[in-house]
Design a protein that fits this description.
- Pfam families: RPN7.
- It comes from Petromyzon marinus.
- It is found in: Cytoplasm, Cytoskeleton, Cilium axoneme.
- InterPro entries: ODAD4, Rpn7_N, TPR-like_helical_dom_sf, TPR_rpt.
- By secondary structure, the chain is mainly alpha-helical.
- The protein has two domains: 65 residues, Serine Threonine Protein Phosphatase 5, Tetratricopeptide repeat (Alpha Horseshoe); 106 residues, Alpha Horseshoe (Serine Threonine Protein Phosphatase 5, Tetratricopeptide repeat), CATH 1.25.40.10.
- Helices cover 81% and strands 0% of the residues.
- It is built from eleven helices and no strands.
- Helix 4 runs antiparallel to helix 5 and helix 5 packs antiparallel against helix 6.
- The longest helix is centred in the last third of the chain and has 20 residues.
- It is elongated.
């Protein structure tokens, strides 16, 4: 375990220096030791760090693979919120917008359960961005509005400014979208505006889908 801790610390330092291969090697050594000695917490830490290395250098597929292996090892709702958000961000980068939305909903559920406002904010933004790419602008507006409210609540002025810009863009695109003939994608993805129950059901379905896919 001491040796694993050493490899982990070295990997973190190497990552900060931009040494991807060295950092990855150190964290993989930590993971190997954890698996050999059935050290659950160390295994979770190593997978966490391996995912971070891959994500930092833009290898999002490998980051997802590492973080998905970590899912059964999650201990708290806050950790779950962070993990599903990060996996969702990777899917967003990979243009897997449905998967990004689904992981965002799971992250939001966990963030609400943990009572953490910052991760609720992050999850709202992730879902909104996924919906923008799915051209479900009505839903995107709703989630950006929720994100803006949360940013205001926690007094994150930088986030408020960025979200306000994104919200205006979503509203503009929504206004330009023909109301009489919405796209098929919009029909499939749209959440009925002004109906919290519909929104909750959509989030629940996405969260359940993510549970099935990630096992």
């Amino acid at each position: 375990q001491v040796l694993g801790n050493l490899h982990s610390s070295m990997g973190n330092a190497q990552l900060e220096l931009g040494l991807m291969e060295a950092a990855l090697s150190s964290h993989q050594k930590d993971l190997k030791i954890a698996k050999e000695h059935n050290l659950v917490e160390s295994k979770s830490r190593a997978l966490d760090n391996i995912g971070r290395v891959y994500a930092r250098f833009g290898n999002f597929k490998q980051a997802v693979k590492a973080w998905e292996e970590k899912i059964p090892l999650v201990q708290t709702e806050l950790e779950r919120a962070w993990l599903f958000h990060e996996i969702g961000r990777c899917h967003l980068e990979l243009s897997h917008f449905r998967e990004a939305r689904g992981h965002g909903h799971t992250a939001l559920t966990a963030a609400r359960a943990s009572g953490d406002d910052e991760w609720q904010l992050n999850a709202f933004v992730l879902v909104a961005q996924a919906q923008m790419n799915l051209r479900d602008y009505k839903s995107a507006v709703k989630y950006f509005e929720d994100a803006l409210d949360k940013a205001t609540l926690i007094k994150d002025t930088a986030a408020e400014r960025a979200i306000a810009v994104a919200l205006e863009e979503a509203k503009s695109l929504l206004n330009k979208q023909p109301k009489e003939s919405p796209s098929e994608e919009t029909k499939k993805q749209s959440i009925i505006d002004g109906n919290p129950r519909e929104e909750e059901e959509e989030e629940k379905r996405d969260a359940e889908d993510m549970e099935k896919e990630t096992g």
